[in-house]
Amino acid sequence: MRSDGHRRAPGAGGSSTTDLVERAASALQALRDRRPRVHCITNTVSQPIVANGLLSLGAVPSLTSSLDEVADFAARADALVINLGTLEADRRDAIRIAMDAARGAGRPVVLDPVFVEVSPRRLAFARELLALQPALVRLNRGELDGLAGEKAADPGGFAQAQGTVVALTGAEDLVHDGSRVARSAHGHHLLATVTASGCLASAMAGAFLTVSDTPFEAAVAALLTLAIAGERAGGRTEGPGSFAAALLDELYGLRPAHLLSGARLS
Amino acid sequence: MRSDGHRRAPGAGGSSTTDLVERAASALQALRDRRPRVHCITNTVSQPIVANGLLSLGAVPSLTSSLDEVADFAARADALVINLGTLEADRRDAIRIAMDAARGAGRPVVLDPVFVEVSPRRLAFARELLALQPALVRLNRGELDGLAGEKAADPGGFAQAQGTVVALTGAEDLVHDGSRVARSAHGHHLLATVTASGCLASAMAGAFLTVSDTPFEAAVAALLTLAIAGERAGGRTEGPGSFAAALLDELYGLRPAHLLSGARLS
Amino acid sequence: MRSDGHRRAPGAGGSSTTDLVERAASALQALRDRRPRVHCITNTVSQPIVANGLLSLGAVPSLTSSLDEVADFAARADALVINLGTLEADRRDAIRIAMDAARGAGRPVVLDPVFVEVSPRRLAFARELLALQPALVRLNRGELDGLAGEKAADPGGFAQAQGTVVALTGAEDLVHDGSRVARSAHGHHLLATVTASGCLASAMAGAFLTVSDTPFEAAVAALLTLAIAGERAGGRTEGPGSFAAALLDELYGLRPAHLLSGARLS
Asked: b/e for B126-149, b at 16 or more Cβ within 10 A?
């Protein structure tokens, strides 16, 4: 899993995307061997799928946002995931405490600025957190534009300006670290009908941060794993309910070989 | 979708119930074309099924009850749904703020007074909200009796007295606006084994309020859609877990034609 | 369901374990006839599976932790289940109020000290509650060691010292009341991949407390019912998502005869 970035050109080359897929496959195996604990401060609607998705993937979730406890949980976890959905006042303080604890303990942090474009106060808080330079930010197009303060914001420019990695999900997934970019058109339209599937992507990115060399590689591995599991689930279900159950089954059953044989990046 | 109430007798006539079914079918199509955002302040246990049910139906859920954010979310949503389950103190304030914002923006409101008969304080709060005349109230028999303060309370009398529409769910569903009444015996006994299926009915009523001429028609369309999806799901499952998944699949796959051919109202 | 403990040796004898299985089967039937309401103050991630699991089993869940309401709900419920997951400050006060109300009304209480070994403050609170002698404590090995303050703590010694019944879940389930012990190796490895399946075990123990003669028998009945439902679900599914749905189906469909024919205790 050592990076060989100095020997190869970063970016779009064929060998480089093959490399990324191989690293994703190795990271998936490493994740299952290590079983990292990922502390997620996440909205209540997303908690069941986030926790079940992490367990299915092979990680261990913890979820408290109690002001008294969150520092202990975050400092002892392997990664911290901050999700801004249904952001009650207490949770804002819990997030600040948890970020301090995780940074103090040298743990990587993922930020998921859910619906940041709808509420000015949530936007202000998201920017406060962004200034602390989380390892990566997972968001959709509306949220990126909201954070960047402009329409059709450039993910690469944003990543560079903020000193973070952008994991942008949608019909096409894109990861950008300011210089390198990876794109994937994997996935399935039913993913958008399962509430909090984006929150799950963020939590999975947190899990992969614990076993990847760089946030860029972690984001690619997480999005690829979720998208390919989604494709496989979508191939044998007809609607959102059975798809959600099949998605967890596929995350659980997915092997590194499935990534190696099935992943297409550009 | 314009009402033609002046040309037809309200109430029990055959053509009138056919009308209601046709309007429900048109509303279902309109809902999918419009994809309304429905803001739900709802108890934490119900959040996953409410969010997934709305997505499966074709609407977009948002769920925050943060005091700082809820006015922005409610005012910009197409409808507001207030559910009194697991009613923490903060959520009570959030509900007041959200109702003000929704009313100020001219958005319709649904009230779901969960378990109001168990707690005197919750009852007092439900009555405070009822005085603000939500477009419709979705409840079960115990909750209606609790709110009305008497056993076997008359839904029509209650609707008229409170200036709202009553959507009463149970073995038989009933909608009453004080003068018109519609009854449906659709549904499936497994619906009662899925937690928060009543909360989902309320949320769906909120979605239909955005595309129906009257709250009465919206309530009929919502209960009929859920009940027929439930019948279809129950026809191919054996227990609560597989039923819940199948229910979301059926909500997603249900077409206006299924209502037109299958619905029986009286 | 009367205990005949005076006629038989407690503990490991063959007739005694047969007895326990028969009592579990009778309790399952009694639970479905009675439909007890179980009030659960439980972490938000566990709420859907706890509520759906109780409904599938034949009990009625309620879940509020509102400071204003929780005394009414707990005093009128048939049992109270206290779960320490995601323990916000308000919930701590709610738990104190609910325990007072339940004890005042003579209702049995289950304590589930989730992740108590991770946070010193949660541990202190768990010990405060333990001093109030809940009827039973449901936990895993890490939590038992955390509570007992030593590695590989002895469940029997702990039960005796604390005046409670220990229901310890893991690869092998064990129930100990300080003198009697029952062990079961039923279950399925996928149970560990479903978030909050331990919380569900605790909630089910609460339901069985309302129909069993002793907390020891209630704990045995609850763990056995869940483990056998899990075995049956695991026999026809391939991953965590379909397993979770099948688990609810099996809880719903499980009959006393399934326990009588399938249960192996030692």
From this structure: beebbeeebbbbbbbbebbbbbbe
**Minimal Cβ distance to B245: which of C73, C245, C250:** C245
Residue C37 banded pLDDT, cuts 50, 70, 90? very high
From chain A, pick out residues whose CB is under 8 angstroms from the CB of B63: 43-45, 85-86
- Contact flag A119-B56 (C-beta cutoff 8 Å): no
Instruction: Annotate B108-167 with DSSP letters as a single string.
Output: -EEEE-TTTTT-HHHHHHHHHHHTT--SEEEE-HHHHHHHHTSTT--HHHHHHHHTSEEE
Q: Identity (one letter) of the amino acid at A14?
A: G
User: Crossing angle, helix B14-34 and helix B215-234, to 10 degrees?
Assistant: 80
CA of B243 vs chain C CAs: smallest distance (Å): 8
Do B38 and B206 meet the contact criterion of CB atoms below 8 Å apart? yes
Q: What is the DSSP letter of B251?
A: H
Q: Is a pLDDT exceeding 60 seen at residue A169?
A: yes
Most C CBs within 10 A among B44, B115, B238, B248, hence the mutation to make, goes to B44
Q: Phi, psi (5° rounding) for residue A40? A: -120, 120
By Cβ distance, the residue of C89, C120, C238 closest to A66 is C89
Cα–Cα distances (Å) from A245 to A200, A256, B116, C190, in that order, read 14, 21, 33, 14
Dist CA B230 CA B185 (whole Å): 12
Across the interface, whether the CB atoms of A118 and B76 are under 8 A apart is answered yes
Q: Do A121 and B69 touch (CB under 8 A)?
A: yes
Q: Is the pTM of this model over 0.80?
A: yes
Which residues, other chains included, contact C50 with Cβ-Cβ below 8 Å and sequence gap of 6+? C40, C42, C61, C63, C196, C199, C200, C203
Question: Looking at the partner chain, which of C45, C48, C242 has a beta carbon nearest the beta carbon of A63?
Answer: C45
So what's the ipTM on this one? 0.91
Collapse the DSSP code of C194 into the 3-class scheme (helix H, G, I; strand E, B; otherwise coil) and give the result.
coil
Give SS3 for A254.
Answer: coil
pLDDT at B173: 95
The residues facing C166 across adjacent strands are: C137, C176
Among B240, B253, B197, B225, smallest CA distance to B48 is for B197
- How far is the alpha carbon of A166 from chain B, nearest alpha carbon, in Å? 24
Percentage above 90 pLDDT, chain B = 82
In angstroms, what separates the C-alpha of C253 from chain B's closest C-alpha? 7
pLDDT for the residue C99:
96
The DSSP output letter for C42 is -
pLDDT single digits (tens) A42-80: 999 999 999 999 999 999 999 999 898 899 999 999 999
Task: Report which DSSP code applies to A112.
Answer: E
- Which of A42, A44, A45 best tests the B interface by mutation, with the highest count of B CBs <10 A? A45
Extract the tokens encoding B245.
């998944």
- Per residue in B12-26, pLDDT tens? 444 588 899 999 999
Backbone angles phi, psi at C215, to 5 degrees: -60, -35
Residue in C with minimal Cα distance to B241: C245
pLDDT tens-digit readout, B183-241: 998 899 999 999 999 999 999 999 999 999 999 999 999 999 999 999 999 999 999 99
Q: In 3-state terms, what secondary structure has residue B249?
A: helix
Which of helix, strand or coil describes residue C9?
Answer: coil
Residue in C87, C120, C240 closest to A64 by CB: C87
For residue B121, the chain C residues in CB contact (below 8 A) are 68-69, 72
A266 close to A12: Cβ distance less than 8 angstroms: yes
CA B261 to chain centre: 22
Chain C residue closest to B240 (CA)?
C249
Return the amino acid letter for B236. Answer: R
Residues of B in contact with A233 (CB under 8 A): none
